Amino acid sequence: MKSTLASLLLGLAVVFPSLAAERAPNIVIIYADDLGYGDISCNGATKIKTPNIDRLAREGRRFTDAHATSATCTPSRFALLTGVYPWRRSDAKILPGNAPLLIAPGTVTVPALLQKAGYATGVVGKWHLGLGDGKLDWNSDIKPGPLEIGFNYAFLVPATGDRVPCVYVENHRVVALDPRDPIAVSYGKPIGNEPTGKDHPELLKYKFSHGHDMTIVNGISRIGYMSGGKTARWVDEDMADVLTKHATGFIEQHRAQPFFLYFATQDIHVPRMPHSRFEGKSGLGRRGDVILQFDWCVGEVLATLDRLGLAENTLVILSSDNGPVVDDGYHDGSVENLNGHTPAGALRGGKYSAFEAGTRVPLILRWPARVQPSVSSALISQLDFLASFAAMVGRPLPAGAGRDSRDASAALVGNDAKGRDYVVEQAVNDRLGVRTAGWKYIEPGPGPAKNNFTNTELGNSPAPQLYDLKQDIGETKNVAGAHPGKIGELKALLAQAKGA
Ligand code: NG6
Ligand code: CA
């Protein structure tokens, strides 16, 4: 431990000479689910106010061109933790709730790297990266999981809020499970004799719009079937409180040593079931209410850092795993009450899409000790957190680790206003696009132009698409015909990334 700390400080001396005598920064990633670029007031939203997120932006650096790797959850989370483009693997897709762990133990991940550097590492919230080795028994030790890939502590929503099993997992065990009422989970044929949304819509708090018609838990029908675990089932309305309590508890407990917290909220994903304190408060329906709830969670984390005197030397990063969607499977009133709010801001598309709103997400970084309040248009990818943190704590990545991760610390916490040369964007059906500072190319391919359930433009087209984002941030005009040279350049970058 001592030598780890010594090498950590040595590393800091190289990278940040003035930090040598100081403690390594704590790192907190607050990762929202499905929060769109335009969902927060510091990014221009006018119909909703997010004061705690705005405070973070005011005190930190707000990025206007930052990207999740993918327009859906599992792949983006995989990339954030491993520094590898998820489209390199065939299995990094939206996972069912009984999928095995996607990241092999031994992989160099953000938490594994920081753990080696002497950090206490914790994950609280949505996991959605699989658990177990394919023969998982939810009533016994649930592993491998986060504890096997670098986290010291885990308090999880195992998959998503809308997928069974609807129970929390703390470290290796389901929380509050009564062994006399064992949990069984199925993503194939129905199990147990509990009502489903399909057969008993009269039992629902609100109805599903597409999918989500299986086992009813807490008055909401889910994806997948579960039986048992009655005492362990979560109450959606309390989830933000429960997760925030565990996140701030982790900070409190580890305040005396460098810590890394990955706080992945269920908000603002479906099912949207705000606590009664937020219900009806946004005037934008439940989707707006859970944005307020998410903003409250952010405020609780900031208040905890303030109270413990840790704010100055804690790097807080807030971002999202993919772009926004309004109807993602439930008639929860969000469509009817949108009231002119534009979740994607000026961007086209949304969650699932190859257009910009799929992956261009909010990113705010605050580190008062090092970073002056500012706005940056640097091209940033969440892929680069791994190599950037490695550089910042002076622990170079071992050969072969974080294959696609580049040290972006100069853009994140230094003076580089440019960031990446290019980044690849992944839509739900594996349609890839590539972005440079001003241009966007989407490769041609099959697939519907629009998802009629979610009402999202997906960006699929049999023809190549090229957008000049400096003139046309909303990707309204395909200028492929006018710029064959530019298309060639961007295609070459995509081919380079695929071959790398
Ligand atoms: C989709 C679900 C959607 C959401 C998504 C994952 C249906 C019809 N739709 O398959 O509701 O759960 O998966 O979202 O089932 S994500 O943010 O975790 O990627
Ligand atoms: Ca998501």
In short:
The chain is α/β, with parallel strands linked by helices.
Question: How would you describe what is shown here?
Answer:
With 500 residues, the protein is α/β, with parallel strands linked by helices. The chain has 2 domains: 2-183 and 228-413, Alkaline Phosphatase, subunit A, CATH 3.40.720.10; 423-499, Arylsulfatase, C-terminal domain (2-Layer Sandwich). Helix content is 21%, strand content 17%. It has helices spanning 2-15, 51-59, 73-82, 110-116, 239-253, 285-307, 385-392, 409-413, 484-499; strands at 26-32, 61-67, 120-126, 153-157, 169-170, 173-174, 184-186, 216-217, 220-221, 225-227, 259-264, 314-320, 360-366, 374-376, 380-381, 423-426, 432-435, 439-442, 450-451, 456-457, 465-468. Strands 1, 2, 3, 4, 5, 6, 11, 12, 13, 14 and 15 form an 11-stranded mixed β-sheet that branches. The longest helix has 23 residues, at 285-307. It is globular and about 65 Å long. The model is unreliable at 9-21 (pLDDT under 50). The site of calcium ion has 6 residues, from loops.
The secondary-structure class comes to: alpha/beta
Instruction: Please trace the helix and strand order, writing H or E for each element.
Output: HEHEHHEEEEEEEEHEHEEEEHHEEEEEEH
Which CATH top level class of the largest domain fits? Alpha Beta
Number of strand segments: 21
| Mean pLDDT rating | 95
Bound molecules: 2-acetamido-2-deoxy-6-O-sulfo-beta-D-galactopyranose, calcium ion
What sort of overall outline do the alpha carbons produce when their principal axes are compared?
globular
Q: Note poorly predicted spans.
A: 9-21
- Assign the CATH topology of the largest domain: Alkaline Phosphatase, subunit A
Largest sheet: 11 strands, mixed
Terminal CA distance: 36 Å
Q: Architecture of the largest domain, CATH level 2?
A: 3-Layer(aba) Sandwich
Count of discrete structural domains: 2
Q: How much of the polypeptide forms β-strand, as a percent range?
A: 15-25%
CATH homologous superfamily title of the largest domain: Alkaline Phosphatase, subunit A
- What count of helical segments does DSSP give? 9
